[in-house]
Amino acid sequence: MADIQDDLVSALEHKNPKVKVETLKLIEGFVGSASKPNAAKVHSSVLPAAAKSASEAAPDIREAALAVLVAFGLKAGSVSVLNKVTDKLDDSRKKKLEDMVQQATTGGPPSRGPASAMASPRRSPASAPGSSRPSSARVCHCQLFPKKAF
C-alpha cells in the first residue's frame, strides 16, 4: 500500500463521492489486515486525507472516513496518534469518533446511560412464551390449494 499511497490520497480528493467511499473502505481494510509497521508507512500521508474526508457533507463519506481513523487508532494501539489530525474536526464528529473507538474496543455498542440499559425489546403477545395463540408460521395451507392432476 505504500506504493500507491499517493494515488489513494488523490482518490480521496476526487469529485465523485463513490470513489471517495470505496477508497476509504479499501484503506480501512488494508489497515485492519496490515501489520503495524506496514500501516505506519502510510500513516503520514493517508491519515490527514482521511481526517479531511471526515468533514465532508455526505454522511457515507464521513462514516467511512471515521472508520479509517478508528482502524488507524486501533492498529497503533492508542487513539492518541489521531489527536494531531482530529484537531480540525468539530465536537460532534469527535464524539462520534470516540463512540466508534469505544464500540470497536469493547465489541458492543457504546453505553448511553441507564435508560438504554433498562429498555427491553417489546414482544407481541403472540410471540410471548406461554401464549396460547398459535403463530402464523405453524398454520398449514396445504389443504386449501389441492394439486390438479393433468
Termini separation (Å)?
A: 65 Å
Q: How many E-type strands? A: 0
CATH superfamily: Leucine-rich Repeat Variant
The mean pLDDT is 74
Q: If classified by CATH, what would the architecture be?
A: Alpha Horseshoe
Number of folding domains?
Answer: 1
Helix content: 55-70%
Shape: globular
Total helical elements = 7
Content-based structural category: mainly alpha
Index terms:
150 residues, Leucine-rich Repeat Variant, 57% helix
Can you offer a commentary on this structure?
There is one protein chain. The longest helix is centred in the N-terminal third of the chain and has 18 residues, at 36-53. Mean pLDDT is 74; it is low at 111-124. This protein has 7 helices and no strands. The protein has one domain: Alpha Horseshoe (Leucine-rich Repeat Variant). With 150 residues, the protein is mainly α. Helix 1 (5-11) runs parallel beside helix 3 and helix 2 (17-33) packs parallel to helix 4 (59-76).
